[in-house]
# Entry
Amino acid sequence: MLVYDSSMTILILLVSFVHAIPFQLRALNHTDNVRLDSINAPYTDDTKRAGGFNTTSILSGAKVFNDFAVILKVGGTWNTPPNQAGASACFNPLIAGSYLMPLKHIKMQLFLGLTAPFGSGNTLALTSSNLARSAMDNAMTAVNTYAIMPGVDLVFTTKSWTFQWETTLIQQTRARGIMDPPVSTHTTSGISTGYALNEKFSLQAEILYQHWLTTKTSDNLSFIAGPRAALKIDHIILRPAIGYMQSIITSTGTFKALMIDIPVYF
# Structure
């Protein structure tokens, strides 16, 4: 479970987890960690020919002092259309800070992230990747923009249950190319519920939603659910998970995907 030691001002991860780590929402990043996730989605074109794409991201988090941590996230994607050469793209990098505030009954995490327009690559691959990530990483896949993104997470835990709510306001500004309007604003939010079956396994389900505030682009709504394990090797803790994802409402078509998520805590 997550234990807050006020004398050491550090969060310690134990094997008997109470806090269920979410798939696409932000985890409580106040211990050193590395996280790898990979989303694979097959699809068929209008002639029923099969294709597919993969999108992968790597996140590194480090506790700097007290209740403050820094986060770096990078990623990329590979699209393999039917009977065509594959196309790839790399995302804008994300650098962020988070501040944890343990309150009486809940934990509140404040978040501030920035992306830089260093990404590039195939437009179709980026669009598909954004859809597969439930538009939660839109600021990273919009490679011609830079973005500022403040957010907040609220986490409530019992002996077996974890409930998390998250929302983020994202303002993207055109850095190059054509974007109308040159500045756009949207929100991403989600609700996550986790249940710990025992000390080694938990079940997780999330509803994810993106809403545009300044354009007429359609919203995105999707869900993901699956099991997560807990493995301890010396002082290292692994929390591997596999999740099934499916769109409910999207701006560019439907998708079904499989996500593999491997957080490692030190």
